[in-house]
Specification:
about 500 residues, alpha+beta, Beta-Lactamase, Helix Hairpins, 15 helices, HATPase_C_sf, histidine kinase, kinase, EC 2.7.13.3, phosphoprotein
């Protein structure tokens, strides 16, 4: 086939188009330089096209540094009596970017063996060069991540065994290289195992999709730290999850601050509740006592006999004693030592009910209400005294206030035990409430169900708030025209000195 080679050589000599086709199609251009006069340089149009110029602009394309490097290679070739060399050449594109060319140089010599021309065959390798630089930068970037001193980076195989951990993980958790190959669950607090396995399952179900989880791990100093992790399933060549990549960072301080904020919010809520209860007791309970005292004073003034005046005086003493007790209880709330808790004390429930009935004696007398108190004398409840006073006063005064005009008013009071609760029942035959329409509103703020002028709609709301503050509850059974039964559940499972 040598005749084809000879034929191609001859065609190049006689037809310049063939040479142009070869160098334009397969090369990045040609250089042909006069070594005697270095300013005389020629380059093919393909070269100028690659560097973004339509005309020769050597001073723009080649900096003094780049030109000096080319000349140094050429001189080294001449000094070594070599005919050819290779070199990586950097040129500057018209848009300011770098163009990288692989130059295969050939030094041409005359009959006396003296170099007089340099031929450069160029190949554009800019894309490959940029890819190499990008790869190097990427490797450097991920290398810095892997050795990052602020995040943990680990990898496990599909069975959960460690295959890689970065230096920061080693340092913080106190492990060494022996951890490689061990089960990653062993370094997690056992209570978090189920949560971890759930997230790993999600990585298998949705590969390449990051999954978030917070896990606790013991540190080398013995403390337990919370860490936020991002897990991601990494597919192998067979399209299956072969690894789990985990990147994490310490969020212990963040979670501690969040917990402190929750406690502060709860404290604020409790303080607001106490303030609300205090304001209600002041405005409602003391107002009731005041009204009762005013009525008793008027009755004493209009007494028709000394015996009647003495009776009213005794009733006045009872009312003032109850008022004094209410004020003492309020003072205990204000001066309570615990920010979070109010002191609970044992109280004989029947005795407390009788005291409240005595405080309401004028109202009961004027309304001609028949009251029966069937609570056993020994029944004791552990309560915040001021709250119990308020609850009893509100429920009993409501039973009188909302009595039926069509029947002789009655109030029946009783108690029974139910599990951990002592249940107080107060039943009246008053107006009743339509629970089909209003059950969800009964204990709401500013909810009223009758047309009494003095109704403000806060009494039952506060009562519910106070009993729940003592970990109890309140329920109602009611029917319009029949009456209502309130059930107050006092929680006796809580220690008698505190509620939380």
């Amino acid at each position: 086939m040598s005749y084809l080679r000879e034929e191609l050589y001859q065609l190049q000599k006689t037809d310049s188009g063939i040479f142009d086709f070869i160098q334009e199609s397969s090369l990045g251009g040609l250089w042909y330089w006069d070594l005697a006069t270095t300013r005389n340089k020629w380059a093919s149009s393909k070269f100028w096209k690659i560097v973004g110029h339509e005309t020769e602009a050597w001073h723009t394309v080649l900096s003094q540094e780049d030109l000096a490097a080319i000349e140094a290679h050429t001189e080294a070739c001449i000094a070594n009596q070599s005919y050819s060399y290779t070199q990586l050449v950097r040129c500057t594109h018209q848009n300011g970017t770098n163009v990288w060319l692989h130059c295969s140089g050939l030094v041409l010599r005359d009959m006396a063996g003296q170099p007089y021309r340099m031929l450069g065959v160029l190949l554009d390798i800019t894309r490959q060069r940029n890819e190499e630089v990008y790869t190097q930068e990427l490797a450097s970037h991920y290398g810095s991540i892997l050795s990052n001193q602020s995040v943990y980076i680990i990898k496990t195989d599909a069975r959960g065994n460690y295959t890689y951990v970065n230096d920061f993980f080693y340092e913080r958790f106190g492990y060494d290289s022996k951890i490689i190959g061990t089960n990653s669950l062993e370094s997690i607090v056992e209570e978090d195992w189920a949560k971890c396995l759930t997230v790993v399952g999600q990585c298998f179900a949705r590969p390449e999709v990051p999954q978030q989880v917070i896990l606790r791990k013991p540190y080398k100093d013995g403390t337990i730290r919370s860490n936020h992790w991002e897990f991601k399933g990494v597919l192998n060549g067979e399209g299956q999850v072969g690894e789990i990549l985990c990147v994490g960072y310490d969020v212990t301080l963040l979670l501690d601050n969040l917990e402190r904020s929750k406690r502060l919010l709860e404290l604020t809520k409790q303080q607001n509740t106490r303030l609300q209860n205090f304001a209600y007791i002041i405005s409602h309970n003391i107002r009731s006592h005041s009204a009762n005292l005013t009525s008793l004073v008027k009755l004493m003034q209009n007494a028709k006999s000394e015996e009647q005046a003495a009776m009213f005086l005794q009733m006045l003493k009872t009312s003032t004693d109850k008022l004094a007790e209410t004020i003492v209880n309020l003072n205990e709330i204000v001066t309570a030592n615990s920010t979070f808790n109010q002191p609970r004390e044992p109280r004989l429930l029947r005795l407390e009910v009788d005291k409240t009935l005595q405080a309401l004696n004028i109202l009961l007398h004027e309304s001609q209400v028949t009251v029966t108190n069937d609570i056993a004398a020994e029944v004791t409840v552990n309560v915040v005294p001021a709250y119990l006073d308020s609850i009893l006063l509100n429920l009993l005064s409501n039973a009188v206030k909302y009595r039926s005009p069509d029947a002789a008013p009655t109030i029946a009071i009783g108690s029974y035990e139910q599990g951990e609760y002592t249940v107080l029942t107060i039943t009246d035959n008053g107006l009743g409430i339509d629970l089909t329409r209003n059950r969800s509103k009964v204990f709401g703020m500013y909810k009223t169900f009758h047309n009494n002028e003095d109704a403000r709609g806060v009494g039952l709301f506060i009562t519910k708030n106070q009993i729940e503050a003592m970990n109890g509850k309140i329920e109602i059974e009611s029917e319009v025209g029949v009456g209502s039964t309130f059930k107050v559940y006092f929680n006796e499972s809580i220690q008698s000195d505190l509620y939380s």
